[in-house]
Amino acid sequence: MKEQLPDIDKGNLIICLRGLVKSFGPLQVLQGVSLDVLKGENLVVLGRSGSGKSVLIKIIAGLLAPDEGSVKVFGNEVSQLDFAGLQAYRRKIGFSFQSGALYDSMTVRQNLEFPLVRNKRNLSAKEVNDAVEAVLESVGLPDSINKMPSELSGGQRKRIGIARTLILHPEIMLYDEPTAGLDPITCVEINHLINKVQRDYYATSIIITHDLTCAKETGDSLAILSEGKFIEKGSFNDVFNTNDTLARQFYNYNFTTNK
Q: Residues 74-130: pLDDT tens digits?
């Protein structure tokens, strides 16, 4: 069980969602979702496939607009930002995609240089190189700098994907199924990396997953999303010390083995 970090700022609300509604045609994906995330907190959102988890973080990232409701991040209503404001806002967010989302035709170095040069055009070649080397060191892959993505394992690709988001020093990290498709040992490594990012970068993070071991090891708080609504919120023990059928199904699927 993860111990809550002492430097979570309980007086500093970074993400504040109120009454979010989002539909795609007749399908209502989010039905009045509300959520608070504190500065420096790792919040895990659990849910079955199709429950609206990925839609939720895309709304937070400003990639989708809700049909109804309020999305306040850093105290600003995201829907009221102009184009320049929205671009500046997105630069504060690191989005770790499930696949790693690396460019297969680029080396690791080039993958990491790309967002840095694109967003910080005044950096010298030395500053870019130092930033690439530092972020590779932080994810434990300094020797991968000249490799192609095809030469990396699945876990290494995820680490490089996280490194690519960290190179811009985001204030918010959004992880979409960070341990999906990985072996148990690599899952442990990714969980440790998520916690390291929280410590080293003081990042506020939302972690989308259906992996309860990941949730238990990385989450300061958890929320279960079902049929477009949050049904349980709180610590790991608070969420799963319940008679709620769906919460028990999640727990039993992950931690109960039929012998």
A: 999 998 999 999 989 998 999 887 666 788 999 999 999 998 888 888 889 999 999
The residue whose two tokens read 């979702």 is: 33
**Euclidean distance between the first and final Cα of the chain, in Å?**
25
pTM of the model: 0.87
Q: Does 3.40.50.300 match the CATH number of domain 9-92+170-255?
A: yes
Give me the residue spans of the domains in the chain: 9-92+170-255, 105-152+160-168
Q: Among 180, 237, 215, which residue's Cα sits nearest to residue 46?
A: 215
Q: What is the 3-state secondary structure (H, E, C) of the chain?
A: CCCCCCCCEEEEEEEEEEEEEEEECCEEEEEEEEEEEEECCEEEEECCCCCCHHHHHHHHCCCCCCCEEEEEECCEEHHHCCHHHHHHHHCCEEEECCCCCCCCCCCHHHHHHHHHHHHCCCCCHHHHHHHHHHHHHHCCCHHHCCCCHHHCCHHHHHHHHHHHHHCCCCCEEEEECCCCCCCHHHHHHHHHHHHHHHHHHCCEEEEEECCHHHHHHHCCEEEEEECCEEEEEECHHHHHCCCCHHHHHHHHHHHCCCC
Give the distance, in angstroms, between the CA of residue 238 and the centroid of all CA atoms in the same chain: 22
Structure tokens given for 177: 């199924």
